[in-house]
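<given_protein>
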Amino acid sequence: MLGRYARRHPGSTLAGVAFFDVLRVFTTFATTLLWRYRAHHADRIPKHGALLIVANHQSYLDPIIVGQLVPSRQIDSVARDGLFRVRWLAPLMRGLHAMPIKEDGEPDSAAIREILARLERGLAVVIYPEGSRTHDGAMTEFKRGAALVVKRARCPVLPVAIEGAHDAWPRGRARPRLLAARVMTMAAHPIPHDELLADGPDAALRRLERQIDAMRLDLRARLRAQTHNTYPPQGAGDSPSYAD
């Protein structure tokens, strides 16, 4: 039984797998209590096998939120390398199966190799092709470096949208806003690799960009409906800010 449990994250120790699950239980309780966290269509996410998750990037909360999507499996993420230089934070990041990526916006060959290595082990890995957190809630154009990861992943790709995380913890704010926002995620159906790459990696990236932003706007509409159009406030996050 313990061996089966350890296989939830191949390559990790039993203690590492347990640490991730304990932390996920705590963060799920916290995000539900503080921001009424809800996930839509999490049942679409494969419970086994390599999976590349592509999501928009709104807040420091994003890896936590995406990591809560599927209780039956553990999800790895990328994080800017500066976080790994914080003495108290680095062990926590590694315990969450995070991997460092350079902050300068240029393709990071070492990070790409690590992402592909983890996919080869049958893991689920989430990337954020915008490269950095949004300034206003709206999505920005996906960086072309992500197209290389999508091309070389050779596994299904899952679009995931996040909405409300920017309202909960906007860029430039030292601490999150507690009880002042609602957070939602939505998963699409996984896209087979060959189907996604049929028209080339750039077209694949544009498809993911459009689909994720459409889901994000759907979530934003749901948030408004739940609050009788009083939340979130009108703003730049209501429409795409990139060239379609």
Notes: The first helix runs from residue 2 to 6. Residues 2-6+13-229 form a domain with the Glycerol-3-phosphate (1)-acyltransferase fold (CATH 3.40.1130.10).
